[in-house]
Write a structure and sequence with these properties.
nine-stranded mixed beta sheet; single chain; 13 strands; 26% strand; alpha/beta; 19% helix; 247 residues; Rossmann fold
Length: 247
């Protein structure tokens, strides 16, 4: 499948017109079909919400052509699974995280840059602390695939823009429960997930990493992409990360 990369309009927009937020989508997943499912979703959300979208597509590998666009991006969306990045590319990601912009992690982002390979190529590097230090999570395993997860919105956050049109308030995801607890004390939790193995595990949250807005959800199984609740949640998280919506 061929994806057409959007050309950022920041330098082309007339001075009297507001610039569109530029959303970089970093995707490389060999497990949940995010390589196929996330780019069209983000392109559609970009069209509906006035965002410029650039897809940084690894196609299951740890190489992301055009990663220099992170210098201009307003928000970085990460759906990457267990990859040690080339050191120069990982440096670009770290530079972005420290920039005071916005980052949204989806599902496997909590172990995005943590390869299980015993020996890494000399030019590649893990970032094991990304989940703990940046996302604010504590991913350490997942539940049984056949059980799935019971998703529930946090009632006290029902009026938050993060949960706008994220309905129903309770639903079943066939995606396994990610064991993320405990999350950092400064995280605001909007959704929890439960199964017969664990109850009320943090699922979706936001926090500040210094001046950078961080949002994460462990949703993102193939079937989740069919759920309006998930699609609307992704929209809301990205919107919040652009600094245009309050928590």
């Amino acid at each position: 499948m061929l994806f057409v990369f959007a050309i950022p309009l920041h330098a082309q927009s007339p001075e009297n017109q507001p610039q569109k937020p530029l959303i970089a989508v970093m995707v490389s997943d060999d497990h949940y079909d995010a390589d196929k499912l996330l780019p069209p979703l983000m392109q559609q959300l970009g069209k509906e919400n006035g965002w410029d979208i650039v897809i940084l597509h690894g196609h299951g590998t740890a190489n992301f052509p055009n990663i220099e666009i992170l210098d201009k991006a307003d928000v970085l969306v990460v759906y990457v699974r267990r990859l040690a990045l080339p050191k120069d590319q990982l440096a670009k990601v770290k530079q972005f995280v420290a920039s005071g912009r916005g980052l949204v992690g989806l599902r496997t982002a909590c172990h995005a840059f943590e390869s299980k390979a015993k020996v890494l190529p000399e030019h590649c590097e893990n970032w094991v602390e990304f989940d703990r230090d940046v996302l604010g999570g504590n991913y350490h395993d997942h539940g049984k695939n056949e059980i799935g997860s019971e998703i529930e919105n946090v009632e006290t956050q029902s009026d938050s823009p993060i949960l706008k049109e994220v309905k129903p308030n309770r639903w079943h995801s066939v995606g396994s429960l990610y064991f993320t607890n405990p999350v950092k004390d400064d995280a605001t939790i909007y959704q929890t997930a439960s199964s017969s193995q664990q109850k009320n595990v943090p699922l979706t949250w936001t926090r500040m990493h210094h001046q950078t807005r961080i949002a994460f959800t462990a949703l993102g199984h193939q079937k989740d992409f069919e759920e309006p609740a998930f699609r609307n949640l992704v929209r809301n998280l990205v919107q919040w990360a652009t600094h245009s919506a309050k928590p």
